[in-house]
Amino acid sequence: VGAVTAYFFHPSILAFLVKPLNKPLFYTSPAGAFDLVIRICLFAGFLFALPAFIYHLLKFLEPLFPVKSTKHILWFLLGSCVLMLTGVGFAYYVSLPAALYFLGEFGSSQVQSLISTNEYFSFVMRYLLGFGILFQLPLVLLLINAMSPLNHGKLMSYQRYVIVMSFVLAAIITPTPDPLNQAIMAVPVILLYQLSVLGIWFINRRKKHKAA
Q1: What CA–CA distances, in Å, run from 195 to 46, 68, 75, 203?
Q2: Potential cystine with 6: which of 41, 58, 116, 125 (Cβ 3.0-4.6 Å)?
């Protein structure tokens, strides 16, 4: 349903995705433009279906929760969607333009880019989805804490590993080797981890007070 609906809006979606590049794209096969439209529609359909997928995943994990409530599932679903949109928005408006600008600086009057639709779309899709998935970190930690309470002190002691892994993942997802673009991706993940630990401490503390 999402993919079919996206077909009627694919010119606007395409303009939105190409805007950070601010250059025309090219296709190198007769079916290149058709292939791009199909990929855009499937990508939009996947994003449209993602909340339903997350909802059923949470319902599958529901027996592991100490308190079984549809309201809690809906709150987790809402949080996941907000985090996904935040991650994608941060990538689109902050990180992606910086990465494209950095990569474009290596061109010259003798060496100019001729970017194909497939290469650019794969690049953007990996970028946006990578940020969206990484921004799910607080939700993952809160889900684990709901199943089995975590110790916030131990979580803080793992912070140095989180910092290293954040930069490693940033180096894999971001195509630029410069530390600035890697930091743009890694620093939000580190801050989200710290906020998650703070949230876990607050939730567990409130549970202990209620139990007392």
Answers
A1: 29, 25, 18, 12
A2: 41
